[in-house]
Amino acid sequence: MKIAILSQDASLYSTRRLREAGEKQGHEMRVINYLRCYMNITSHKPGVMYQGKPLENLDAVIPRIGASRTFYGTAVVRQFEVMSVFSVNESQAISRSRDKLRCLQILARKGIGLPVTGFAHATQDIDGLIDIVGGAPLVIKLLEGTQGIGVVLAETEQAAKSVIEAFRGLDANILVQEFIKEAGGADLRCFVVGDKVVASMKRQGAEGEFRSNLHRGGQAEKIKLTPEERSTAIRSAKAMGLRVAGVDLLRSNHGPVVMEVNSSPGLEGIEKATGVDVAGKVIDFIAKNASSSKNRDRIQY
Questions:
Q1: Region 117-179: CATH code
Q2: Positive or negative CA dihedral for 225, 214, 260, 273?
Q3: Is 262 annotated as a binding residue?
Q4: Does the predicted model carry a pTM greater than 0.85?
Q5: What angle in degrees, to the nearest 10, is found between the helix axes of 100-109 and 91-98?
Q6: Contact 192/269 with Cβ under 8 angstroms?
Q7: Shortest CA distance to 2 belongs to which of 23, 16, 20, 33?
Q8: Fewest CB within 10 angstroms: 143, 213, 237, 246, which?
Q9: Is 295 annotated as a binding-site member?
Q10: Do domains 117-179 and 182-283 have the same CATH topology?
Q11: What is the DSSP string of 161-216?
Q12: Is 187 a known ligand-binding residue?
């Protein structure tokens, strides 16, 4: 098969591992910088051009779209979909997951456990917003933040009001969520491929840090999920329409709650923590589902 990895940087761990895993299984792998692609949008012969040449005869693409490049990246993925090229994650699902508010609303509609969350536009409604989540301490998040950036723990209501007013003064969209104290600064990353959790790890925040992101000094270890946690992760990915996803959970007193569903989950942390060939699992999934045009519309799990 001919598989393209849509990535800005061929040297990134995740990109390299996907390429290695695909080549190991005998596939022709190519890394394409999606920002350098340009499109011929026409009904009779739609196409994607790269470095002056058309990208033709691809069997599948693996989108590794950066959060700040979602608009153009998903446009490229959508163009491949117009060309009937199998995409591991479809453009609509990527866009859906990148909008944190929309993501939470979809999960809530499906009855999936979430932290109590509030959202408002006007700063005049701050008191009501804080009351929704049960008061301080509470977590304030920028909708556009990634890797723990733009996430603040406000330990008092006055601190919360100050942070909310500051963010809104910058015309930033924010979410306010209850603080799950019993999680102890740890979360669970569940890597979902198809209808299975193929690997899972516990990420523990650094001393004095409530955010567990590995980019912020957190530590990771392999962990066994409960049946409820496994089911929650799979249902969350399915609700978003993602075939490959990183689902982040917290262990709360009222069961697992979903913090985020990531459409381009990193491989380095989870492969090193668990020893699982996650990249190989992704390539296996592609081989089963993109091997012929017949089953491009009938995903196999």
A1: 3.30.1490.20
A2: negative
A3: yes
A4: yes
A5: 100
A6: no
A7: 23
A8: 143
A9: no
A10: no
A11: HHHHHHHHHTT--EEEEE--GGGTTEEEEEEEETTEEEEEEEEEPPTT-----GGG
A12: yes
Tell how strand 2-6 and strand 60-63 pair up: parallel
pLDDT in tens, 246-257: 999 999 998 999
Whole-number CA gyration radius for the chain: 20
Amino acid identity of residue 150, one-letter, is G
Q: What is the pLDDT of residues 46-88, one digit of tens each?
A: 999 999 999 999 999 999 999 889 999 999 999 999 999 999 9
Is the CATH number 3.40.50.80 carried by domain 2-96? no
Q: Residue 175 above 90 pLDDT?
A: no
- 171 is an annotated ligand-binding site residue: no
CATH 3.30.470.20 is held by the domain 182-283: yes
What are the distances in angstroms from CA 23 to CA 16, 227, 250?
11, 34, 36
* Residue 99 counted as an annotated binding residue: no
CA distances to 49, 64, 189, 199, 276 from 225, rounded to whole Å, are 44, 26, 10, 10, 15
The response to whether 71 counts as a known ligand-binding position is: no
- CA–CA distance, 36 with 117 (Å, rounded to integer): 38
- Establish whether 40 is an annotated binding residue: no
Q: What is the largest CA-CA distance in the chain?
A: 60
For residue 197, the tally of other CB atoms under 10 A from its CB is 19
**Res 293: pLDDT:** 45
Domain residue ranges of the chain, discontinuous segments joined by +: 2-96, 117-179, 182-283
Is position 141 annotated in a ligand binding site? yes
- Residue 248 assigned ligand-binding role: yes
Q: What is the DSSP letter of 99?
A: S
